[in-house]
Write a structure and sequence with these properties.
Elements (H helix, E strand, L loop, with lengths): L10 E7 L3 H12 L6 E7 L6 H6 L5 E6 L5 H8 L7 E6 L2 E3 L4 H11 L6 E9 L7 E5 L4 H7 L12 E3 L2 H5 L10 H10 L6 E12 L7 H17 L7 H20 L1 H14 L10
């Protein structure tokens, strides 16, 4: 039996769902099979009309909280779950994410035990796949050095928020996620809570999460909004919104959007793969 009923569990895993029946079982199974047992799972559902909540009920051994009601997006869903967490660290997963192997939480617990008390966030490497069903690997996010990410963090968020550990008391100190953001609420929260002190970020040097290519900010259709909201988050947190990097990425996102609009997805994939080969990255079969 997982020790999820303890008031002193180490990890609280928060999952926002909405009509997630096709993927939630795989996500929860990867948690149930963990060798480490000091964790709980909280599911905040946006009012699913499929059998998402029935699947959640099948995992009572690890799910300590499961509520379903209409919400205003993923950040609103997370905010509803956060007052109920018991863990020292909070980990956010998408319903179509899964842990990379059965020892992920054990490894994260060892990393957390060694990290500085000043550290508020520990991010991990994330293996991208074309889809959770196919599991065909593409690229790994977060492979560069910790110093690289600390140097660049105030300019843009280059690591994945999925699989990022947050000290739970950080939410008491700095508040919850701003639901005025559609995609950039995680970056806004991290900027707000590190208070420009990038030493509060640490890195777990291994792949912890497997994530499908279709994450909320991975589509060319939403990347324009992603960079717009990153600029907004910087400005909101007292950082100049005049970022060369972010404005360049925003420009590229507009170019990608209009290439697809004018020439179609096939041409977009072809041009994208030429660029990816130049960078030494694997080709992709879709760009949506």
């Amino acid at each position: 039996m997982k020790s999820t009923s303890s008031n002193h569990c180490l990890f609280s895993v928060v999952i926002a769902t909405y009509n997630s029946a096709a993927t939630l079982d795989g996500c929860l199974k990867s948690l149930l099979e963990q060798s480490f047992d000091s964790f709980e799972v909280l599911i905040s559902d946006g009012g699913s009309t499929d059998n998402t909540m029935e699947i959640a009920a099948e995992y009572r051994e690890i799910v300590s909280y499961a509520q379903s009601a209409p919400d205003k997006g993923i950040y609103d869903a997370w905010n509803k779950a956060l007052p109920n967490v018991k863990g020292k660290w909070v980990l956010f997963l998408g319903s179509d994410d899964c842990l990379a192997d059965n020892n992920v939480l054990q490894a994260l617990s060892e990393k957390a035990a060694l990290t500085s008390s000043e550290t508020l966030f520990i991010f991990s490497e994330v293996q991208m796949v074309e889809s959770i069903n196919s599991m065909r690997k593409t690229e790994i996010i977060g492979q560069e050095s910790l110093n690289f990410y600390r140097t660049r963090f105030l300019d843009e968020m280059l690591f994945s928020h999925t699989g990022c550990l947050h000290r739970s008391d950080t939410f008491n100190t700095f508040g919850l996620f701003d639901i005025g953001f559609r995609i950039g609420g995680d970056y806004d929260f991290l900027l707000r809570s590190i208070e420009k002190d990038v030493m509060k970020i640490d890195k777990h040097e291994r792949v912890a999460i497997v994530m499908g290519q279709g994450g909320s900010s991975s589509s060319y259709k939403t990347r324009v909004l992603t960079y717009q909201e990153a600029i907004k988050a910087r400005k909101k947190n007292g950082i100049s919104h005049l970022s060369k990097i972010l404005h360049y990425r925003l420009f590229v996102s507009y170019v990608v959007y209009f290439i697809n609009k004018l020439f179609g997805n096939k041409m977009l994939i072809t041009l994208s793969n030429i660029y990816r080969v130049m960078l030494g990255k694997p080709k992709r079969n879709s760009y949506d």
